[in-house]
Amino acid sequence: MKETTFIKQNKKKWARFEKLSGQKNNDPDEVAELFTEITEDLSYARTFYPRRSVRVYLNQLAQGVFTSLYKQRKQPIGNFLKFWTVTLPLEVYRARHNLLTAFLFFAVAIVIGAVSQHYNPDFAKLVLGDYYVEATEQRILEGNPMGIYGESQQSGMFVQITLNNIRVAFIAFVSGIFLTLGTYVVLLGNGIMLGCFQWWFKTKGLLLTSFLAIWIHGAFEISSIVIAGAAGITLGNGILFPRSYSRVQSLIFSAKRGLTILLSLIPFFIIAGFLESYVTRHYQTMPDGMKWLIILFSFAVIILYYVVFPFVVARKHPDKIAVKEIPRFIPDRKIEWNRIRKVAEVFTDTFYLFIKYSRNISRIFFTLILPLALVLTAVIFAIEFYKFDYDLTMIETFRTLFGTGVFFTWYKFLGWSLILALLFLDVFYVIQADEDAPLFKGYFKFLLRHLVWMYLFALGAFSIFVFAPFYLLLLSILVAPFIGMIPAIIVHERKDFFTAFGNSFSLGKGAYGDSLGSFTIFILIYFIFSFILENPIGGGFGEFDIISLIDGVIKDLTITVFDRYAVIISFVNCLLFLLFLFLMIGIYALSFSLSYYSSNEIKTAKGMYDKLGDFGKRNKQFETDLDYD
Question: Chain-centre distance of CA 53, in angstroms?
């Protein structure tokens, strides 16, 4: 629109905003609303009237009120109190049905555990472990059935128990991402364990003794695990029931709501850890009245705050119950392929492209490539069953699965090389495919054109990984920028493997430093994520990795059903390795492609010549002084 029309339409709003910004006592909400509109007008003026006075006026107006606006709203103590008195109770109220579901499911799991123990006296050994049952039986004979709570040093026990409780709650929450099924599995395992534990003591005639001992700390601990389960169900429901949002947007919103509930449990886990470490150990000398007082008070706190108080707050703030989430708008950024990129640009553009194309890359991977990888994994399990003791570390399982060292076999070498070639072609095809073209039909045509030469590259790359000694494997990082050029040349220039191999060194040297720098960063990311996947250090904190957490859940779920439950755990571990490699290889393939274009730009300057062709052409999108009299 014309500048004069733009000013006429908005000048009253600007005048009102200017008046409010000069007052000390004003309505922050009104100022905030006007401030948002002013910034939108400023953005419009910067786009269409960049050299006009209206842009300068709006810029000064917005800057002048920015400081005073946020100075009025900066209330850290008030926000802290508001979180516990309004924000969190309302979030719990919105999740009240999930909380009820988690509680009922957990109660059913307790009954299952008690009934199983009643009809199978050895059930406790399966769930609690032989050592715990035998040690507790010995303590019962000594007249101190709950003596386990007094055998550890108090401060160390407090830290370990608190961290373990937080870990269990975190698992219950994060597992909800598996369509809430993971959360139900965690609740089922903990509920069965609790029911079995209590009924086992009943058979010993110690039900009341055990109850008054463990529920001193268990009132907070068990209740918090149920609430964490409600948070996990909230997370999973965001995927199951996205409503009008996309599933990614709904997942983000539900994760934020569930995480709010989860974080509120940390103080209660700390209190539970303190009670278990410093109070429960005195269960024999403590009067029963004191035990009942602690237990009932703990349950009262949980019920009042997480059950009653949310309804009180919801009745007080009915207008805040329904929350309309506004998805964050992230503009689509056009990637300029033919340009020279530094290390930081290769890094950021790689992740941007991976996120942008992750849907189609994943569709091909999960539909075609992963089934082939699982078939190969199943064959390895069948042929080399004796080599798996099902208690392997990540490195040992990795070597057995992929055939490094003494576990090398040709069918693994040829099979995994094919999977590697298909992964590279998956990524390269998606980033250059027409979005409107049939995905799988185009991918199969792409395979017919490039699979043979990409397979030769994969055989060479995998042979370095399998046969090279460790020190040569480290030195191979120095030639990675040249090796990374080969698949990009095969695809982007439609060359055969041998031509691509010959051209890779002359092309790769142009951007060698930046390519090596970005590849090194991705190698470091690989080691960081592999450390998170499975902690190789072990010890007291070794169980706080993804593999250990998932293995614990699977064990609790399958130990009472399958005698060879460890086989299932090992197979799931292999699946996690495959998913991890898919993520990393996809990232590497994209970084190789960007490094190729950067090196090619240095050599041919194609992007620069394209820009010179458009030099001097006027952009009709913007108004200038030439548009006005």
Answer: 47
